[in-house]
Design a protein that fits this description.
Strand content: 25-35%
Helix content: 10-25%
CATH architecture of the largest domain: 4-Layer Sandwich
CATH class of the largest domain: Alpha Beta
Number of strands: 26
Shape: globular
Radius of gyration: 23 Å
Structural class: alpha+beta
Number of domains: 2
CATH topology of the largest domain: Purple Acid Phosphatase, chain A, domain 2
Strand order of the largest sheet: 5-2-1-11-10-9-23-24-25-26
């Protein structure tokens, strides 16, 4: 096992203090980046296997910075390195040939943080592309491409995004990410279910390794298996990602500190803490778990794209009220009728603090477009039954008063050009959003686009047809194909295309355009074409 020698500029006491800083603040970017590394680290660490096999990624771009990520994958031949703190160098270049280096950072990583590396590359120029790579000892990473956002005062011609969600490893191949990698995009907007904790042998094309994750190491292994997919790595390396989560990053249908098995909350929160830590270790996001309370991690965020758009990414899971009218024997969502609890004004999908943060941001935004990205479908999917209208309690239909508060604020504040983006439901949806769903007397106040899944199987056509016939606000709904949604925002309007292929997704699947929808500036609502 190689040991890192101390340079003359650092005493053993300096290193001791640095090690203590890392131990006490494992998620602190500033502590990580402030720590220098031995000059001869590159010569002393020799890898037998590629430690960058999980790829590189970038995310949360700003006008002057971007978050760069990798994780050292220490395989059996290099197992002794797991006991060391390793120096990783990150370089950023202004050109694809990697001749114009504009920044260099050396950070330390260690087993306590899963050998993950997060570099906040600062001092960059707005609205331009950069290329980056990592090195550790004898190994170099693939080269990634990223870009910064325009400056806040900039007038911007366009924003091009791929909207994606729900990539069950077992239920299809990540061929959609191959397509995303080849697109000319500004960013990828991923709205949840990056990994799946669960399996369904009926639809298995390829297998998860291990059982249902419960511990930190098990969640790490699941993330690593997903990152082992070459198409997913390509999409991360090609574009910066803006991300939020849904439920399968932890467990299906969890709500706050309650899981479907009604596990003791303290026990479940330990599992949630492990899942959140593993998520942070594998994603290009700035904020990790709270060191004082590792079951908490802020994922909701706001990003400006010049004067063209403000984008909010919301957290629909961590702070939500419990499901209404639950099954007394198990938690999670279910279809209910005649549930009086749905009318409780205290119930929230986002938690009251996040609701207030969003409302204040929307009401003060000066951007031409207000884009609200969140985990699921906001428009109603209920059905008329002899016992009353049905509601699926895990979706926005299960939080109707909170949905009404959100849409009523848009109406009251006279906000224009609000676009809601979602995923989760494994189908493409284009819909009108009214304060009172499906009521023609209630004006349309916002527009909605929901992307189908990357791979996860959708509902049957019989149920889909019933949803369409019972919900006239829905202009398009198809659950039969997989893919992603291309979205282009300009000062004049929004253009979108549902890019899809047949279910299940195969390695050589070809993608076409299922449907296209537009939103005109100043006119709420989606129109086909």
């Amino acid at each position: 096992m190689h040991k890192l020698s101390l340079p003359a500029s650092l005493t053993r006491r300096d290193w001791g203090r640095a090690a203590l800083t890392i131990a006490l603040a494992p998620w602190s970017l500033s502590a990580q980046q402030a720590l220098g590394a031995p000059e001869d680290a590159k010569q002393r660490v020799r890898w037998r296997n590629d430690p960058f096999a999980l790829g590189v990624a970038s995310g949360q771009p700003r006008a002057d910075s971007v978050l760069l990520w990798t994780r050292l994958w220490v395989q059996e031949a290099d197992a002794a390195l797991n006991t060391q703190a390793l120096a990783v160098q990150c370089e950023v270049f202004a050109d694809e040939a990697l001749r114009q280096r504009v920044g260099q950072w050396t950070v330390m990583t260690h087993a306590q943080r899963g050998m993950s590396v997060h570099v906040e590359a600062k001092g960059l120029q707005p609205a331009r592309a950069y290329w980056y790579r990592f090195t550790c000892g004898s190994a170099s990473s693939p080269v990634g491409r990223t870009r910064t956002t325009p400056a806040a005062q900039d007038k911007v011609a366009q924003l091009r995004m791929a909207l994606a969600s729900c990539q069950h490893f077992e239920q299809g191949h990540f061929t959609a990410h191959r397509e995303i990698a080849q697109q000319d995009l500004d960013l990828v907007l991923f709205v949840g279910d990056y990994i799946y904790e669960s399996s369904n042998p009926r639809y298995q094309l390829r297998a998860h390794q291990g059982g249902v994750p419960q511990t930190l190491d098990e969640y790490r292994a699941r993330h690593a298996q997903y990152k082992g997919d070459a198409d997913l790595r390509a999409a991360h390396a090609a574009h910066p990602w803006v991300m939020t989560w849904d439920d399968h990053e932890v467990v299906n249908d969890y709500a706050n500190d309650r899981d479907p098995k009604l596990t003791d909350p303290q026990v479940f929160l330990r599992r949630r803490a492990a899942a959140y830590q593993a998520y942070f270790e594998h994603m290009p996001v700035r904020v990790g778990p709270d060191a004082a309370n590792p079951a908490n991690m802020r994922i909701h965020d706001r990003m400006a794209w010049g004067q063209l758009a403000d984008i909010w990414t919301l957290d629909n899971r961590q702070y939500r009220s419990y499901h209404a009218c639950p099954d007394p024997l198990k938690g999670g969502g279910r279809v209910v009728m005649g549930c009086n609890e749905l009318a409780d004004a205290q119930r929230s999908m986002l938690g009251i603090d996040q609701e207030r943060w969003l409302t204040q941001g929307l009401n003060t935004s000066k951007a031409a477009w207000k884009v609200v990205a969140q985990g699921t479908q906001m428009s109603s999917t209920g059905l008329a039954t002899p016992l009353g209208r049905s509601a699926f309690t895990d979706g926005w239909d299960g939080y109707p008063v909170a949905r009404e508060r959100f849409l009523q604020n848009i109406a009251d504040a006279k906000l224009q050009d609000v676009l809601v983006l979602g995923g989760d439901v494994h189908m493409n949806v284009a819909a009108q959003l009214r304060v009172q769903p499906n009521d023609e007397k209630s004006p349309i106040v916002a527009s909605e686009l929901v992307t189908t899944s990357i791979t996860s199987r959708g509902m049957g056509e019989t149920l889909a047809a019933q949803i369409r016939s019972n919900n006239p606000d829905i202009a398009h709904l198809r659950p039969d194909e997989r893919g992603f949604t291309w979205v282009q925002i300009t000062p004049e309007g929004v253009q979108s295309a549902f890019k899809t292929t047949a279910n299940p997704v195969q390695p050589g699947s070809a993608f076409g355009t299922q449907a296209q929808f537009a939103v005109q500036r100043g006119v709420a609502g989606v129109v086909k074409g």
